[in-house]
Amino acid sequence: MKKWTVLAVILVIIASMLLTACGEPEETTTPTTQPTSAPTSAPTSAPTSAPTSAPTSAPTSAPTSAPTTAPTTTPVDEPQYGGTLKIITCENLPTYEALVKADGPVLSQVIACQWDSLISYDAEGNLYPYLAESFDINEDATMMTFNLRHGVYFHDGTELTSEAVKYHIENFTFLRWLQRLDEITVETPDKYTAILHIENPHPTFPYTLGAGLWAGIGSPTAYEKDTLEERLAGGSGPFKFVDWVRDVHLKYERYDDYWQEGRPYLDALEILFYADRTTAMMAFEAGDAQVFRDLTPREAADLRDKGYNINYSGGSYYLLVPDSFPGSPFADPLVREAIEYAVDKEALTESFGYGFMNPQYQTAPVDRPDSYVPGLPERKYDPDKARELLSLAGYENGFDTALHCQTQDDRDLLATIQSYLTEVGIRAKIEPMEPARFHEVGREGWTNAIKFYHYGYDMDWRSCYKSFFGKEAGAHFEAMDKPVAMTDAITEASQLTDKERITELMQSVTQILYDQALAIPLWSEATMCAYDDTVHDIDIAAIDIFSWHPADIWLSQ
Fold first, then answer.
1. Exposed end of the chain (fewer CB within 10 Å): N or C?
2. Which domain holds residue 461?
3. Which candidate, 56, 260, 29, 54, places its Cα nearest to that of 126?
4. What pLDDT, on the 0 to 100 scale, is given for residue 182?
5. How far is the C-alpha of 88 from the C-alpha of 311, rounded, in Å?
6. C-alpha–C-alpha distance, residues 107 and 392, integer Å
């Protein structure tokens, strides 16, 4: 295995746990509300400093039916040093080989501990410097200049330089695959200046450099070492890797020479893995950890009612994706449309959402106005209409099929969806899969089956459409038909900065997905995190599904 391939695998090893953003930046503290609209172009300049604090409570505007406040902690004047933060998660690290085939909403949970990014962003989508002291991005993001901070040292003692950035960009192939970059080169005119040149416009690319698996900058010297332990010693983040025991824990300790003076506040950070959600809930309430992340709506509501603090923000967009292969019942758009009429989204979100889920009738939410189509008729629950469509398609007696999901998905919820489908004659057998296998099926394609899936609530919806419905988005929906008009519109929109034209193109994509019922929207669901009163300045789930800043967190002693 080549060393650059090892780099991709190593970062995924430490990051992947489950299962993907542009605006004018301004110097500000991190806000506590979710953005009401998505930035439509890359910022052309950056503030010179990062926000000085992180949100301590959930955004009040997402989702619209969720409670607007969470229990608050007793004010403390100054951050305190020391202590070990323990975070419970019900996702786990699979085998090393499988990691390159999986991704997840918590993948940056681990990356942010061990690796820092060049830039970061706040809850309103404003980019600000991080490892870069300042940066400049032209309008279409074909040239990005990063002026690095001086005196930043990786965990192995080597210095962050422009050559390290060049190594990361040119060797980390997953980064290039994610954004479908045609050609990217890095110029290093001096030790602390890195200039990225991209052949075609990619206005959404800066957010890719802001958080997640692809963002963390590591030591090239460490990545060229022979052993896993040596390669893991090349981080740039606030914590150093200590130990990983599969199905048990992942441990980090404070990096004393971290570039942010006075940070991190914590002595150590541990991520505790639980396979069973009930056991995880009991452990959290017993005080085995101060944080429980990636909650279900039911868990979040229960913990909120018990007085725990809840962070939440736009998290995931859930949908059903049938295949479109010739010979499959779902090749007929009438059958695909029948799926949407068969499912009672209002009842589902009422029963399972606890105020954290909202029914959706388009593949873009209303707070993404460049992609949402006003006035599009909502296909609300109508089982008689579903049966009529199936009869017109020649399936008056229904048919047998499969419903693909991941092992961690809510079985009660899926059983309810299954019962709705069965009621109209779509007899779907639930087939749970481990995350790695689930994504493998997405890449390989599937026939006569419906995929239960969700994608991240991106800052810029172009990134979402490009990753899941674009020309090269087979990693997720290889079995889904992708009309040329749709993929061309996604490609063009991804390269533009003209807001009116972007809106025209993105709304046309939403219209095609709706007209042909290629993907059936179900609901949007917040990403949620609970924490006790000893935890301060924690922004897990307060910005989006990916970004957080563990260096800012501190504990009351």
1. N
2. 314-526
3. 29
4. 56
5. 15
6. 44
User: Does 541 map to a domain?
Assistant: no
Asked if 252 and 155 count as a contact pair (C-beta separation under 8 A), the reply is no
Name residues whose C-beta falls within 8 Å of residue 32's C-beta, 6 or more positions apart in sequence.
55, 56, 57, 58, 59, 60, 123, 542
419 falls within a domain: yes
Give this prediction's pTM: 0.78
CA 153 distance to own-chain centroid: 28
Q: What is the pLDDT of residue 213?
A: 59
Q: How many domains does the chain have?
A: 1
Report which residue type is found at 168.
Answer: H
Give the span between the Cα atoms of 542 and 557, in whole angstroms.
24
Q: What type of residue is 361?
A: Y
- Helices 3-15 and 162-171 pack at an angle, to 10 degrees, of 90
CATH for 354: 3.10.105.10
Q: Is residue 124 part of a domain?
A: no
The answer to whether 255 and 175 are in contact (CB under 8 A) is no
What's the alpha-carbon Rg for the chain, to the nearest Å?
Answer: 23
Q: What is the mean pLDDT for each group of 10 consecutive residues in the chain (557 residues)? A: 43 39 34 35 43 37 38 66 95 46 45 90 89 94 95 96 91 52 84 92 80 78 80 89 86 96 97 91 98 94 97 90 94 98 98 95 93 97 98 98 92 96 98 88 91 84 88 75 95 90 97 97 94 96 86 95
Question: What are the tokens at 437?
Answer: 């296998």
- Residue 87 counted as domain residue: no
3-state secondary structure of 184: strand
DSSP letter (8 states) at residue 368: -
